[in-house]
Amino acid sequence: MESRSNDLHVLIVGGGSAGLLIAQVLQKVNITCTVFEQDITPFARPRDWNFGIYWAQSRLDECLSDEKRAKIVTVQTDPSYVPSESSVMPVHNGQTGELMKNLPAPWSLRIHRRRWLKMLADGIDIQFGKKLESIERGEESVTITFTDGTKATGNLLIGAEGAHSVVREYLFGAEEAALIPSPVVASVTICKISREASLKLRALHPRYIITFHPNGVFTWMSKDPANWTRMMMQTWRSEEDTGLMGKGNEEVKLKTWYEMGREFGPPFDEIFATMDPKSPIWHNRLGYWPTKPWDGKGPITLAGDAAHPMTFHRGQGLNNAITDAADLLQHLRNMKAPTPLELAAAVKRYEAELVPRGREAVLASNENTNAVHDWATMMDSPLFKGGMAKEGDRIEVPIEKKANKVQTS
Question: FAD-binding domain: from which residue to which, for each copy (predicted)?
């Protein structure tokens, strides 16, 4: 661990990926931090998503200790899967079933949310059941109050509590901080399908599949081999959401899946038709917020989806959150002394890089989301043309993979 002072104390609101990654980098430079999470337990939310790391592998290595770096492969949806330079993500025509393209996805990781968060939380001071109510800032400190009446004071507050960030709302006001609604809606389920349908899907690819349908429906299908469950997602353009938004209405949501499934060719029609009728389904309209600077608000900053909430069709969210943490680490290491003044200067340098990068990622992701729901423009979308990497960027190969390649070449 690097030598720094414990006199500084950083408050992090949000115990998801961004908040815990930030906590990990603060730990690396020996700056005390506390993570405050509004959920009452680490895994209170029933949605057990999985998500991808496509180009930020080396930046992730920067954020973690040697011990945690060694555990990354174990928190994949399939820990037996060995990422390689030749890894791809197949794209199929949903109507005909034909393979349209194998998108390059070298060294990509598919992460199981709960295993990932458990790994990142290890060794971090986390307080649960802490819903943020108000913020009071001073020149070198900030105090936050929670709905249970408790308070905490630190030298810096980092809002990392996701797309609907209370900290972002404090910085900008409710209207300016609000998400911009996308014309695209998403329906996501964690479900089981028939064994036959599951084997057919697995035969196409062991981890995941994307389909584009000429009618404008985009689907994503991935699996957890531990219990043969599937994370499946459908997105499409819709002006109305009658009967789909909010909790409940599971029968209406499932009926939508069945009806859309009839438009698909084999084997995808069978997959939709055999979904477990008890499957939980979440439906919402996508939203985004092009990142903008938040100067002059005292010792407060943002990270992850709080700073750059974006649509997900190119899988850029987690990769940018990792980059946030890695960039912050670099600036913390360049502090001349462990003082509130130096900490504030480091955060300013961090924000100067984050704001333009976040804005570009948000706008590019939104453009891509619109493109993949229009058959005429889908073939020219950044996703179809460039895969999941950042446009114009090389893939960042994990540090240990680079070492292995040198040794074996």
Answer: 121-333
